[in-house]
Amino acid sequence: MYNSASFVCGLLFGIGLIVARMINPAKVLNFLDLAGQWDPSLALVMAGAIAIGVVAFSFARKRTRSILGAPMQLPTARHMDRRCALGSLTFGVGWGLAGFCPGPALVALGIGELKAVVFVISMLAGMAVFEYAERVREKFSTKPPTAWNRKTPTEG
After folding, report:
1. Helices 114-140 and 102-110, axial angle in degrees (round to 10)
2. What does each C-alpha distance from 105 to 36, 61, 127 come to in angstroms?
3. What angle do CA 19, 20, 24 make, to 5 degrees?
4. What are the tens digits of pLDDT across the range 137-146?
């Protein structure tokens, strides 16, 4: 059931990106071009996503289990640290240079967009470098493991 729900959610997300034409890097780059051919449509897509997210998170906060029965695991961090700021900066620079972020890039990859192929390969390489750097950092750190390296009881 979980895989089916994940598939349906991913399919809806992908269709939404196609309908909003957010898989076109030029559309995103025009949104970022405030001094040129500015296209505000991405702001409307973002506003819609934020509105849905606010409703979904307010519903989720009242629950201890997801609709499919898994334990509810909402983010608890409430502060900005150096790593979060650098990650956001890196994401923004990549988004501004390529006109893609991960979701639209994967949808564009699915339709055979050559720029998406290059982006996704670069994204996967960046993820691999990050994972390697985290393992090295964790090996030499005296702090407890970070959240993304810890396994949950259901993962084994």
Report:
1. 140
2. 24, 31, 15
3. 100
4. 888 887 666 6
